User: Fold this.
Amino acid sequence: MSAVPFTVGQWAWIIDDRGQQISVLVRDIEELDDGYSVKFEDMQTGDRYYRRYRTGVENEDTND
Assistant:
């Protein structure tokens, strides 16, 4: 598996469900057999985002 491009506690830019680029805080990273999942939190709104990054497959974006 390639290196995870995030670290917990780091600020990152993602695209939210409205198509806007937002700054979020990385809350959790979980290694998976086929990649990794990252949980982000928008510190202004409290919205949380989940991203699953898999090798060789289109990435999934969901809110939880």
Summary: Strands lie at 11-15, 21-32, 35-41, 48-54, 60-63. The chain has no helices and five strands. The chain has a mean pLDDT of 86.
